[in-house]
Each structure stands twice: as C-alpha cells, then as structure tokens.
TrEMBL record:
One of its GO terms (molecular function) is oxidoreductase activity. It comes from Spongiactinospora gelatinilytica. This is Amine oxidase domain-containing protein. Residues 122-348 form the Amine oxidase domain. Transmembrane segments: none annotated. Residues 42-53 have a biased composition (Low complexity).
Amino acid sequence: MCGPASSLFWRSREPPSLYPPDVRGPGRPRGRRRSRVRNVDGHGAAASAGALRRSAEAHAAGRRQRCQGRRDRCRYLRHGGRPRTVGRPVPGAGLRGAGPGGGRNRTYRGGDVVTETGSTQRVRWDRDPDLYFNAGPSRLPHHHEAILGYCRDLGVPLQVMVNDNRHAFLHDADALGGRPERARRMINDTRGAVAELAARAVGPGLDRRLSEEDLALVRDFVRAYGELDENYRYRGSSRAGYAEPPGGPTPGRILEPLDLVDIAKGGLLPLAMLFGEIYEMQAPIMEPIGGMDAIAHAFYRRTRRFITLNAQVTRLRRLGCGARVTWRDRTTQRVRTWDADHVIVTVP
Ligand SMILES: Cc1cc2nc3c(=O)[nH]c(=O)nc-3n(C[C@H](O)[C@H](O)[C@H](O)COP(=O)(O)OP(=O)(O)OC[C@H]3O[C@@H](n4cnc5c(N)ncnc54)[C@H](O)[C@@H]3O)c2cc1C
C-alpha cells in the first residue's frame, strides 16, 4: 500500500486531484484534463495508494520516453488536424469505496455477505462499530509514509495496532512435545540459550582480529543480552515469564528455561519468533480506527467525481502515440471506448 512520496492533498488550496501536482504536467491548464478511476466492483471504488504510486511512476517513465514531435503529429492526425487533450483513465483502482465488494482492501462487519468464487457467507457477529475484521490489509507499517500521509490529509484517524503479541501462544507440533508456549518464553529462552553458547565460544582463537579486551567486551555484552549468570550460564529470566508472579511480599518464581533442542525441533518457530523483527512488521504499526476501509471511504469522498463504478475494462490497445480503453458498463451492458494519451493500469 505504498504511495508516491508526496501526498495528494497536502496543498490544501489545490482542488482534489487523483495526481500530485508534479505529475499533472507543467503549465497544463487545470480542469482541461479529467481523469477517471474505473472499477469493476459493484459497490464502490477509489484511487488506491498503489494506483497512485504506479500512476506517478508510469507518468514519469512515459515522459522520459516521449518523443514530443511525433506525439504532437499523432495527436494532430488523430483528431482531424485539431490537437486535442483527452483524459487519463486509471482502470481498476483498488481501495474500494463503499461496501464489502472490491479490491483487496476489505473490512467485514456483522451482517455483511461475503461472496467469493463458489461460496457465499454471512458475517454472523453483532453489528457494532468496534466489531470488524480486516480480511485484506490490516497493517500500516511505520515506513509506509505515503499512505500515512494520505490518512493525515484525508482525516482518517489511526490507532496503534498490536502486531507482535508476546503473550500469544506459539505452536509447532514438532516442538516441545507439541505443547504451545507463550511467545515471551520461547523468544527469551531461545535468546538465553543461544547467548550461553555464544559466551562459551568467545575466547582466544575465536577471531584473530579481536584483542583480549575486545573479547571481554563481547562476553559482557553477550551476558547482558541473554541475561546469563556470573558463570555465563542461562538459568531462566523474568523476561520469559513467571511460574508464580511477583507481587506484594511474594518475590515471584521465574519459569524453568525451555530446552533449546526441544524448541529447535519446530521448523516453523524461528519465523514465528522473529515475526516482529521483519521490517514491515516492526512496531509501531498503525491501523485506521473502525476498519481499514476507512481509507477507501475517505479517498472516495474526495475523488468520487472522477470515478465511474461498474466499469469493466475489457480491452487496452495502443493507438498511435496514445491508447484506447474499451470498457463495459456492467449495469447497462453498454460497451464504450475512451482514447487517451496515457492509461495507468492498476488492475492486479
Ligand atoms: C490477505 C491480504 C493481507 C494484506 N495485508 C497487507 C497489510 O497488512 N499491509 C499492506 O500494506 N498491504 C497488505 N496487503 C497488500 C495490499 O492489500 C495490496 O497491496 C493493495 O490492496 C493493492 O491495491 P491495488 O489498488 O493495487 O489492487 P487491488 O486492491 O487488488 O484493486 C484492484 C482493483 O481492480 C479491479 N479490477 C480488476 N480487473 C478489472 C478490470 N478488467 N476492469 C476494471 N477493474 C478491474 C478489481 O476489482 C479491484 O477493485 C495484503 C493483501 C492481502 C490479500
């Protein structure tokens, strides 16, 4: 869901546009070019950040490759000697507009009917603003600055999403006799056991580039890293959790450390334990309050005058220096064509 580096609506006095000002083209009179987002879904559509990013990239690439003289000649011939400016269609923009019907950005709520190929299901839980399921994208990672910028500009309120839950159970049938364990215990006992092995290896002969002083530093670091005792042994840690929690006069009793070999039997566990370390998954992760489709609704509110719903693109053809889009109105079944200088294709 990355978008272009600059946001559409940051210039508040600009009229709503599908394109950042820098991709409109220098000196082009505002209002002469009208772009439309066309979407095949029955319920709604809006320009997606992905579509917008690709629009910016496609436009820049097109501009680089363009032979202006040839282009003008083409336009001149095509329109009977009258140069004409036509629109820039964007077939298949995702981030749907209203209702659970389009794009990969889907939020389901009580009472929604979900139709996939060959099956229809009704969402049976209560209809309540706080009860929803983001069945497609659910995370806005910290580095998706463009979509975060759109949320700010479009007034979509965000909240922190808990993406890495150390209280969750991790389970692999091959590990720990098939017993699920809390993520905090697995992660910290693994770190402790690995640190103990590392501490044993840190000594003369490990690496000739390291002086004795360096090795001592590394050993101290590894000890703190794994919470090892003074003999560089891992004997469990409060990081992994308690068998008896502390409180009042009770000091608490930490859990016995899990055995590294038992953990290592679970081939799925390294990924599960490192999930929160993946770049896209690192905290903080944000989400729109009330469901991911809040972004699509906000885009739709701002850009609806450019959008044609129920428009199924059936053919794209080069036409001289431009392109022809053939599309079918799924309501009336009428087939239409649209000639354009550029077509920005965002169908998956
Ligand atoms: C389960 C899941 C989880 C995900 N989680 C995340 C996440 O947490 N964070 C994240 O950033 N990204 C996530 N993604 C990826 C993210 O959803 C997509 O990158 C993003 O939605 C793509 O948007 P889009 O507009 O490019 O495509 P889409 O959302 O797929 O929209 C394409 C649109 O084109 C329409 N279309 C298709 N054919 C035609 C045609 N012939 N004519 C007209 N219209 C047509 C489709 O109906 C659709 O509405 C996830 C995706 C999935 C499936």
